[in-house]
Amino acid sequence: MEATNTEDVHLRHVEKDVLIPKMMREKAKELCADKVEAFTSCCKDSGILMAFKCRKENSALKDCLMHHYQNPGFFEECKQQYIQEKLEYEKTGIPAKHRGQKLPASM
């Protein structure tokens, strides 16, 4: 019996508490790319003193990431994306990260 509607899919504990938050972290880093870049360049420029010199950039990065982590709409968006990928995997047997790859011509 295959669930086709995203509301009908049962998520395991590990999916709710580990896999979807992992997806949220990855997407939040993309959405906060400017803050990540500012913090990274500050750390590279500051060397050992980065803990003191980059407080402003670190704070801005944390605020941006926490804004996304605590947003219930963002969680639902990531959850729906995860469910779509899960359903697609169940249909094809091909993980999302390998779907874009082409098969070798010798097959």
From TrEMBL:
<keyword id="KW-1015">Disulfide bond</keyword>
<protein>
    <recommendedName>
        <fullName>COX assembly mitochondrial protein</fullName>
    </recommendedName>
</protein>
<dbReference type="Pfam" id="PF08583">
    <property type="entry name" value="Cmc1"/>
</dbReference>
<comment type="similarity">
    <text>Belongs to the CMC family.</text>
</comment>
<keyword id="KW-0496">Mitochondrion</keyword>
<dbReference type="InterPro" id="IPR013892">
    <property type="entry name" value="Cyt_c_biogenesis_Cmc1-like"/>
</dbReference>
<dbReference type="GO" id="GO:0005739">
    <property type="term" value="C:mitochondrion"/>
</dbReference>
